[in-house]
Specification:
Elements: H1 2-19, H2 42-58, H3 68-73, H4 86-89, H5 96-120, H6 123-144, E1 147-148, E2 164-165, H7 167-185, H8 203-220, H9 231-244, E3 255-258, H10 271-277, H11 290-298, H12 307-310, E4 311-312, E5 346-347, E6 356-357, E7 376-377, E8 409-413, H13 415-429, H14 435-453, H15 455-458, H16 467-483, H17 486-500, H18 505-515, H19 541-546
Antiparallel strand pairs: 1-2, 3-8, 4-7, 5-6
Protein name: SusD/RagB family nutrient-binding outer membrane lipoprotein
Signal peptide: 1-25
Pfam families: SusD-like, SusD-like_2
Amino acid sequence: MKKISKIICLPFVALAILMGCETTSLDVVESPNALNPSQASVDFFLNQIQLMTAQIHSGEEGRAENGLSQFGMEPVRMQHGFGPTYRENYDPSNFDRVWDNVYARALIDIRTMNPLAEEAGQYTHIAIGQILEAYIMMSMVDFFGDVPYSEAAKGGEGILNPKLDSGASIYAAADQLLLDAIVNLNKDETALPLNDLFYKGDESQWIKVANTMRLKLYLQTRIANADGFGAAVSTARINELISGNQLIMDSADDFFFQWGTNNASPDSRHPYFDANYDGAGPSSDFYTCNYYMNLMANQYNEPDPRIRYYFYRQQSDFSGADVITKECVTEVSLPSWWDPSEPYCIVPATNGLGGYWGRNHLDNDGIPPDDAFRTLHGTYPIGGPFDDDSFRNVSGSGAVNEGLAGAGISPILMSSYTYFMLAEAALTLNTTGNARDYLETGIRQSINTVVEFGASLASGSGFEPTSTAIDNHIAEILTDYDAGNDTDKLRIIVEQYFIALWCSGIEAYNTYRRTGQPDNLTPAFALQDPGTFLRSMWYSQTAADSNTNITQKSAPDTPVFWDTNPEGFVD
């Protein structure tokens, strides 16, 4: 994160230089508080664009602002969303910061950097910007549908109210950006980036990122009904990508942002670490959904090998907890409308590993003083403590010395994701390869990544999974897969993808709307009808108020262009 601090320090360095000049002229620079493009460093621009990408994905440390990942995890029951209806789950203002980061920061920095890099022959800088722009704009379409793009970030041309572009046209532009990026990565450049925060300037790895984003794009559009997209096009493009053998297939090529451990000036820790352990920002309403913890704890004969790395339990004994927290902890009978097969308050210890305290989907009850009982995010991917049955109350502690002290990652495109995407494509499009083999490799890649990430904390605890335990767990999943029909097979692929996607809700939200799987998600907590599922999100309140070309949606239920599934397909 020393690299990131250089970005933040740039204005102060410039100001110090100006204050030290021996001149009385007021025309030395256009403004003492802002650098014009000719004075800016291409490397500083690139670093800022990379940091913005991580914040658009995961949110911002020290701020009550969520990234798209959080907005994606809540509807699909990974994180808890309050509801009590889908319409009320979010307010348009919740998306103001994401839009600000996209349009007022990332895109402007890319537009400013490109001509400087072009003039200097720094084609790798341009390529990285193109890849990140494609990712950001695809994500904006995935969450909001039609959004400004072709006229966006062009205030210098007098376009203060950029028009909305169709999601299909933005996807097409993103695909072209990725192809152009590969061309630029194969050019001879005058200088590689000084501080590439992802791959240290390794062009071969960036080429794999570009190709894997194209895999994501064409899997996402396999059910689309738009020019240039659809099942036939997706099948052909995905097969081309497989044969090209330039995808993220190994953990050494994983695409993630590494956060630091500094807790002030600036706070460089993973934003979810801050939210779980510092007691600041959104921590007061930060719950993991019981569905997701139950999926990992009780779906098979033994708990998932990743569960102790994902979650940290602060308590083992909940007797008497109902006195100060939730009345349902010790209820003798469940409400008549609740599915008795689902955990109501605490995930049961069916397989001997229980005590997971979260919330159910769209439960909007008031927040009780349950900080000491909640299950927190653990080691992977946010850099928290490993669950070694110590059951310490660490919520709101500041956790300076907890776990990896916040040195987590934002997992954007991991090798395991590639295999799950290929498994879905093989099953639904009959693309090259065997869906079962892709599924098995995806699970193994995910488990290996998680275990390796938390090895320094789990080693010697007696709770790190053995190779035999991992093999047995995977064998049980594959047995269920072999016994199922195509619907069952797709459900199992997506369930395992969801588990691998912990803290990466963009892909989970997309996959659920695209496949309708898992089709056995916990229903909404409240007895009332939760309304139509979030087929897209509200437009930013600020954007809708300030841009005359944006009309706020009547409800956040308008499908994005690639979502051609019928109403009621997901709930």
